[in-house]
Backbone:
């Protein structure tokens, strides 16, 4: 699982039936110091409570679909938690608080 | 699987029900010389590891679900599967 920051929402009405009821957010992937790292992508929100600005953790690949009600939903990334706090005293560059 | 160091804890209140009661650790991959690399993961702890421990990480969904008994639909890939006591690396020189 990786850190991500929600930077937007995606609304789609006409979509493949497997995606009905799935909420999509735009996520900026972050490195271990919670700095942007890589291109933003679209992730399903299995918590249903995440929104723009929030720090989340993401599971990718086959396991993303397992977080949804339909575990065969055609998704490749999903938000599985909203992070309150990261306590990382041993982080390599000391940026952890 | 790879060797990593536990560098921190991750706290989340709102999360997928599978994660209820489970501990999330921030781990950073180590190279064979024991240096931290830039690769990290958020892993579910199954062995009571803590910050500073050198650990063994399984980064594969099916293996992770086998370790974490709690359903076939666990949305998990990375699991701390062991605390490493010692590494003996034989080098030719």
Residues:
């Amino acid at each position: 699982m990786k850190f991500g920051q929600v930077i937007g929402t995606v609304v789609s009405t006409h979509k493949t039936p497997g995606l009905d009821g799935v909420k999509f957010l735009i996520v900026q992937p972050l490195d271990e110091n919670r700095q942007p790292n890589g291109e933003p992508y679209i992730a399903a929100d299995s918590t249903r409570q995440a929104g723009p600005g929030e720090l989340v953790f993401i599971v990718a690949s086959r396991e993303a679909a397992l977080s949804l009600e339909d575990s065969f939903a055609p998704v490749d990334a999903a938000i599985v938690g909203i992070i309150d706090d990261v306590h990382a005293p041993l982080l390599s560059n000391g940026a952890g608080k | 699987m790879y060797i990593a160091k536990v560098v921190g804890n991750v706290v989340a209140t709102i999360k997928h029900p599978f994660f209820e009661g489970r501990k999330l650790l921030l781990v950073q991959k180590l190279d064979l010389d024991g240096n931290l690399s830039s690769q990290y993961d958020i892993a579910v702890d199954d062995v009571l590891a803590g910050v500073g421990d050198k650990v063994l990480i399984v980064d594969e969904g099916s293996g992770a679900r086998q370790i974490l008994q709690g359903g076939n639909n666990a949305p998990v890939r990375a699991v701390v599967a062991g605390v490493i006591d010692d590494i003996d690396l034989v080098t030719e020189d």
Notes: Chain A has one helix and five strands. The helical segments of chain A are 62-66. The interface with chain B takes residues 1-3, 31-32, 46-47, 49-50, 57, 59-64, 66-67, 71, 78, 80-92, 96 of chain A (CB under 8 Å). Residues 21 and 69 of chain A are 9 Å apart (CA to CA).
